[in-house]
Amino acid sequence: MSGLSRRQFIRVMLSASGALVVGVGPASAAFTPTVPMELLGEALTSLGAFVRIERNNRIVIGARGCEIGQGVITSLPMLVAEELDADWTRVRVEQLPYGYEIGPDGPTNRYGPQGAGGSTSITDGWKDLRQAGAVARWLLIEAAAQHWQLPHERISTEASHVVHPDGTRMPYAELVERAAAILPPAEPVPVKTPDQFRVIGKPARTVDARAIVTGQAQFGIDAYLGGALVAVMLRCPHLDGSVESVDDSDARKVAGVREVFALDGPVPGSSFDGNLAAGVVVLADNTWAALKGRNALKVTWKPGPWAEESTAKLEAQAAEAFKGEGVNVRTDGDMAAARKAAKRVLEARYQVPFLAHATMEPPAALIKIEPDRALFIGSLQNPSGASSVIANLTGLAREKIEIRMTRAGGGFGRRLENDYVAEAVMIAKKAGKPVKLLWTRDDDLRHDFYRPFGVHQMSATLDRKNQLTGFAHLCAATSLNYRIARKKERPPGQGCLEADDFPAGLLPNLDKRFFSLESGMPRGPWRAPLHTFHAFAVQSFIDEIAVETKQDAVALRLALLGEARELDYSGHGGPKFDTGRLAAVLSRCAEAIDWKRKRSDGRGVGIACHFTFGGYAAHAFEVSVDGRDLRIHRAICVADVGRVVNPLGVEAMMMGGTIDGISTALNLAITVKDGQVQQSSFGDYALGRMAQMPNEVEVIILPSELEPSGAGEMGIPSVAPALANAIYAATTVRVRKLPILPELNRLL
Amino acid sequence: MPSPPLKTGKQPSAPVAAAEPGPIELTINGETYRHSGAPDMPLLWYLRDVLRLTGSKFGCGVGQCGACTVHVDGKAQRSCLLPVSALAGQSITTIEGLASGEDLHAVQQAWVEEDVPQCGYCQAGQIMAAVDLLKRKAQPSDSDIAQLTNLCRCGTYPRIRKAVKRAAQLIAAARTAEAKP
Ligand code: FES
Ligand code: FES
């Protein structure tokens, strides 16, 4: 998705309430907005564009992104406010709905890119949202120029006012009518230079914090609609299994239960473009009745083709797989020759488990389907996907589907898949009524698109001088690209093993291969997909090499990274990877944790660094292990995400990523037995609680003038290896299997 | 159906489960409601489905996450575990009833000042749990704060810690101000 494309221009209109509205959209739609004029400015209706200047000089900025906790409801409007020179303290932000429409050149989105995935929101907005703000400001200045009969250049702006050269200030609101009559410039207008920034780079608190702390913020699960029945579903616990028989007589006796029916799952092996599992649906007047009805169901299931699958068997499959050739992911030089010539070859095998997303707000969806239109309200990360799913299943044109977006109680990649949207539509169609679908926690943990399971076989070749001459990374995993909905099948390694990840390009000999494991587990992106998956192996192994060759683990990494330069990087976040920026976060992190200082009292320090999606991060931890008790005394996260739009927001993401990383690395795994997911609650999928967490995460953001990258994902991949490395430093016990705590207990 | 007038929440438009023996009287955020639906309905679903007080969140339904935390007679309780029938005559406060009018409770204020929320979903429960903690421990230590067992998937724990301490200060300062006429 690009920023402001050739066809997208700035749209300007004057609403019926007299507010100036500026947005991006197809040029010819400039004066025929699809949102009726009368509705603009009304609460609970669509905000027609990004900027609305009201008569009292209050500026309302529309937030187009999916707010899943990554702070875009604050940071994206900041970009608009900056270029508009709006008084940020008086700006009100409103969530925009999904903006699909048919423009003169076909389907388009009147708000530009809206999804949340791959840490791209800020990078996109940096281009088009700043332009939207800049055009609004340009129009206001032009209006002032006409009013004061002065050249455009002599007028400046400040805090929602235009300023006359003699210092006279006039509120934007007074120029709204005149500005709306001016034709927006044909060419993009210049945006500010960084020295002119007043909003970007200044800490801004979450714009709707007050609504959150008073319980007023709306999440998808909070949407209700008169006449909608609550739907819950008992899903088949067997991967690709089906319903054999249902006895719903007791369920139907529960007061408030209205309907019970079976729903098919996807055809085994077919792509996941609908719901995820077969099951039995209970529809009731309220959630409690639906849940009681579900409890009263007696269902027998038919196990599917994966009845034999288990985590133990996947481990065995991986061991077997490595005997084969695998799929080449990247080859440099000649690793076989390097092995022959080597003085020493180091080997280690690491294992990472399936993971569930466990968003705090479980999947939920509200849908009302009418013959010629549909309304959907829910927590989304991928509204465009949701819109296609609804269109496919209802036969409605996408522009007839209204999608209202809300705050989402976490995303982490779970909501990139819209299976729960599809399920709600299927149920609503069958019931012939609006439906509010709710997933319970056990539904959520047992039916997810899991982060892949995999085993990493690492080797390193060393010459006589203990110099690293070659590096091999063989990865056997349940490919991420499994039954992907409506997409071309991608190469199997993609999503598990990044060709150009460190130390690729830094050594003469490299051998990276992928080995696909057979599994019926649905898989999908999980926060920093593939990076959390393989950084553990790479950054742990580098530490092992340092130990084995008696080198300092930071010095070894810095020596490998070498001179600051750009290397080609074909993965997401490329096209370049800057060795200097990675070295800088690593060095800063080492300094902050006082890396060189010898620890006593059984304390150990571990470090790791990683490049993800355009951002650079390093983590260091100081830990001790007392009996079986792991304590994290210090946690440091250093990041370089380019220019920072909202320092508070980036800090929160890095802190959150670090805590999420710790929680996941210590405790979390999804396992399979007899073709069924074994975890079903926060009891057996135990997210970290306050008591297990370090009191503080010291976050250091390196200043940068470079284009901003997102910050949602780079805060996590280096956590698990830094922790494992710290545990080794404290105990000389090497944890090569995640999650850490059960493995550490086994090894101690 | 709840007894009018409803001062908070929206008028429910979905019917409540069929009438069962005798309505249960509930006091929620100072208002009295009569529930004549299923007596075993957990308070969480009564708040959400019937009163449309959706600030209390569903995270697990089995007492493990704390997203549904409310106060019953001033003590933090997980509302997903409380059948309404057990609550007759007790005073319930939800996140919606914590502030006095426009004035945020000190804990809410501290949450805003420390910019605690990320996705925000767990935060109503976190705040209700923190208010309860501060009632028991006016100046909580780090290990007191570590007793908070509410889950946060976004990892806001370090900021929750800071906000609890800040709230303790705000409350202490308000007390001192009150003491001096
Ligand atoms: S919903 Fe009540 S504790 Fe989780
Ligand atoms: S802020 Fe998202 S779960 Fe706590």
From TrEMBL, chain A:
Signal peptide per UniProt: 1-29
InterPro entries: Ald_Oxase/Xan_DH_a/b, AldOxase/xan_DH_MoCoBD1, AldOxase/xan_DH_MoCoBD2, AldOxase/xan_DH_Mopterin-bd_sf, N-heterocyclic_Hydroxylase, OxRdtase_Mopterin-bd_su_IorB, TAT_signal
Chain segments annotated as transmembrane: none
Keywords attached to this entry: Signal
Gene3D superfamilies (alphabetical): Aldehyde oxidase/xanthine dehydrogenase, a/b hammerhead, Aldehyde oxidase/xanthine dehydrogenase, molybdopterin binding domain
Domain Aldehyde oxidase/xanthine dehydrogenase a/b hammerhead residue range list: 214-305
Pfam family, one: MoCoBD_2
Name of the protein: Molybdopterin-dependent oxidoreductase
Species this protein is from: Tahibacter harae
From TrEMBL, chain B:
Lineage, opening ranks: Bacteria, Pseudomonadati, Pseudomonadota, Gammaproteobacteria, Lysobacterales
Provenance organism: Tahibacter harae
InterPro entries membership: 2Fe-2S-bd (IPR002888), 2Fe-2S-bd_dom_sf (IPR036884), 2Fe-2S_ferredoxin-like_sf (IPR036010), 2Fe-2S_ferredoxin-type (IPR001041), 2Fe2S_fd_BS (IPR006058), Beta-grasp_dom_sf (IPR012675), Diverse_Oxidoreductases (IPR051452)
Domain 2Fe-2S ferredoxin-type: 22-98
Keywords: 2Fe-2S, Iron, Iron-sulfur, Metal-binding, Oxidoreductase
Descriptive protein name: (2Fe-2S)-binding protein
